[in-house]
Specification:
The structure is a single chain. The protein has 10 helices and 22 strands. By secondary structure, the chain is an alpha+beta fold. The strands form 4 sheets. Strands 11, 14, 15, 16, 17, 18, 19, 20, 21 and 22 form a 10-stranded antiparallel sheet that branches. The longest helix has 20 residues. The two termini are 67 Å apart.
């Protein structure tokens, strides 16, 4: 056995002289693993190979991380918006809770039934424990006045559940964004994370200057500053557009919300103080596609070429149809090829016609405001599919609806409020410039 150990020792000595760093690194690692301590090795370069080694040993706390947390209670925090299809069980399950007692309470609680279950868009925050039981649920929604919100709190107690309801004022914040048209306005606002309600407002604000059905171009740009209505730091919904800019086919259009002192309501004005709200809207639909304009066309049913005395808009059945201007309903019923039709009389001998409706929401003799819903898109009468046929008549003569909308009268800021508007617009332009240069970042 002696020769074997002698040979092994000789090989170890030769290896240590040839590779001192590797040998000592391995020894250090072995000591650190087996001994549970720290092991320091001095440099073993040729000049210091004979220096004595120094060993440093420190005590390490080996208590496992789970044991450190053993005394801490685990809390679950989740937030989501309610859906119209929600039940008490599905809502809690989506929030990560499996709690039959809490689900039973929600099914029977009056406030939960009236405001949460089956109601879409309510912000809900939930806290749960390690057993996935509900400990606290907070729901918030905007009140009818539009200026306050309700906070409903449900908490688990030793005797079951306790609920309370509070009312507080909404905080009005400001948000901004911008986008570029690639295909449609709504596709661009979706890409920019701008809510659909803001996109609809943009279409309404610039409807008198931009034909969103036919005139949008790829590369058109927009920027917008709008209100966000917040409760406890959570955005419950968006508010009014405060300022906006739209560059369509190289032409820049701007709009600024302004309300004169003492006025009942405000409106949107250009930088020169000219109102963007004309006597007539450019379209009876908030957003749609025109399929046939005011021109000669081949009639799909009569199979002949004849003048098309209005404009047709493609839209799904049930799409709301709005009055383009203030007036009085002259006809509300069924009429031959028009099917279900509404005719509204306006000032100066003007009449507008809304045909092929699936439903009529107004009665003859009723006064209607600009933008008020008259009925819903359908395919009644002589129609090959769901669409709206719209006409504009002046003393019985048919006119191009788009031309009439653009030629309708506008108002200006009063002379008394002009200086106030100039100051307001100057400040709004700064915000609008910031909105146009805002970069949108996403985390993939």
């Amino acid at each position: 056995m002696q020769p074997f150990f002698s040979l092994w020792a000789t090989r170890l000595q030769n290896s240590f002289q040839t590779h001192p760093r590797r040998i000592m690194a391995g020894v250090a690692f072995a000591f650190s693993v087996v001994g549970g301590g720290a092991f320091a090795v001095a440099s073993l370069d040729a000049g210091v190979a004979n220096m004595p080694l120094r060993q440093v040993v420190e005590t390490v706390n080996t208590r496992s991380l789970p044991s450190m947390w053993a005394d801490q209670s685990l809390q679950l925090f989740r937030s989501d918006l309610t859906r119209s299809s929600d039940t008490a069980d599905s809502l809690l399950a989506r929030l990560g809770v499996n709690d039959p007692q809490a689900a039973a309470y929600l099914r029977n609680a009056r406030t939960a039934r009236q405001q949460l279950i089956g109601h879409a868009g309510r912000m809900v925050n939930l806290e749960g424990d390690a057993e996935h039981r509900l400990t606290r649920l907070t729901a918030r929604w905007v009140n009818e006045d539009g200026e306050s919100f309700t906070r409903w709190i449900l908490e688990r107690s030793s005797d079951g559940f306790v609920e309370r309801q509070e009312t507080a004022s909404l905080n009005v914040g400001t948000r901004m964004g911008n986008g570029t048209i690639q295909s449609s306005l709504f596709a661009a606002t979706d890409e920019a994370d701008i809510p659909d309600s803001v996109a609809s407002q943009l279409a309404d604000i610039f409807a008198g200057d931009i034909d969103f059905h036919r005139a949008l171009r790829k590369g058109d740009r927009f920027a917008v500053v709008y209100e966000s209505l917040e409760a406890d730091g959570e955005v419950l919904r968006t508010g009014r557009v405060l300022s906006a800019e739209f560059v369509n086919n190289g032409k820049t259009h701007q709009a600024f919300w302004f309300k004169e002192a003492g006025a009942k309501e405000g409106g949107y004005y250009s930088a020169d103080g000219v109102s963007l709200r004309r006597a007539y809207l450019a379209s009876p639909l908030a957003f749609s596609r025109m399929t046939s304009g005011f021109k000669m066309r081949f009639h799909p049913i009569l199979q002949t070429w004849r003048a098309h005395l209005g404009a047709d808009y493609a839209a799904p059945t049930g799409t709301p149809v709005r009055s383009v201007g203030q007036g009085i309903v002259d006809v509300a019923g069924s009429q031959g090829g028009f099917g279900n039709v509404v005719m509204v009389k306006h000032a100066n001998g003007h009449t507008t016609v809304y045909a092929h409706l699936s439903r009529i929401n107004v009665k003859r003799g009723q006064s209607v405001m600009q933008g008020q819903t008259l009925g819903l898109v359908g395919a009644t009468g002589w129609a090959t599919g769901p669409h709206l046929h719209f006409e504009f008549r002046v003393n019985g003569q048919h006119k191009d609806p788009l031309t009439m909308a653009r030629q309708s009268v506008t108002l200006e800021v009063s002379a008394a409020a002009r200086e106030q508007f100039k100051r307001h617009a100057a400040i709004a332009k700064v915000d609008l410039t910031a909105a146009a240069s805002t970069q949108i970042s996403r985390v993939e």
